[in-house]
């Protein structure tokens, strides 16, 4: 860069345009849910909800698992939105920990119960490849909406931000999946569904450096200054 | 000073010190509020407020960069300052007017400095420092025979076997890279005679070395 700093300041002041301050992470989460929830509902409706859904909702175990998955998605989204605001409180990062622990704990508890009731057969695994594409399908639009919203912020910690965003979309995807996929064996849910959520989270976290980086946004600002 | 006086003196100093830190904290808060107000105006598109804000924060940013990157040259520090100003400009929508300004600015500065350090490390890992760049390619086929002779021992021996006049011409003109005028003056001969000697020496060397290889 060869430009004089004083000159850069003058040029930045010349090109400054009004911008709307980003709302708080909670409000942005609500906005994200306004896009994500109708889409998840649409997918569930199109694929057709499981026949025993009403009966399942009244079961404590199922209700807790679903609520925990939903809460994990919501809190991960809030944490992701907080990480793109400079000077945010780092405590936000721990928001998804409790619902995630409840989600994993309830599934772990289900595994123990299955083992007590059925012995080693209760923990047997069968292939359930349907989970991966189904979670990707249900989580696709929430993930795209999340990426677009995160790109409006500052890419301070791209990997952490994207991991949280991925967890939010995949968590919501899993919540949607269990509304139409009749798979309730805890160990199967834990391995195939939660496993998919974690794999997707890791993949999105890896892609963080491409989705969110200073290079592109600073480059755009620099080009605007130079064009002026 | 007895014990009572000493205690009174300590209490007085402590009160004065806490008053001073309080004043400083208040000044900082007022300062932060003023910067926040300017930023809020800049978010509304006020060019004057934005210019004032950038002029106000640039020396502070420069001081931080200089403090944390003491080993950098002035122009590199200025590059980093400009990078931070451009980053601030790009993400100015993330400033929440209800929150303090300086922590927001410091977070951007800190992350951009870390980013620059990572970029520097990555670039350094892929860079090979060389004093002189090679003037030819490493591929054998791209080099003509005279670009380099790969048996220095045979070359040394061939030079040794030259006549004294030819050897002296080669040493002065080719090895010590003297000009014709300098070599002629050093040897006490004419430029023409030197040219003939070096031409014949090169022909002899070429013949001997090609035969050897």
Describe the structure.
The complex is a heterodimer of chains A (about 230) and B (about 210). Chain A is elongated. The longest helix of chain A has 24 residues. Chain A is built from 10 helices and no strands. The two termini of chain A are about 15 Å apart. The mean pLDDT of chain A is about 90. Chain A has one domain. By secondary structure, chain A is mainly α. Chain B has about 210 residues and is mainly alpha-helical. Chain B folds into 2 domains: about 110 residues, Orthogonal Bundle (Rna Polymerase Sigma Factor, Chain: A); about 60 residues, Winged helix-like DNA-binding domain superfamily/Winged helix DNA-binding domain (Arc Repressor Mutant, subunit A). Chain B has 8 helices and no strands. In chain B, helix 3 packs across helix 4. The longest helix of chain B has about 40 residues. In chain B, about 20% of the residues are buried. The model of chain B has no long low-confidence stretch (mean pLDDT about 80). At the A-B interface, helix 1 and helix 10 of A face helix 2, helix 3 and helix 4 of B.
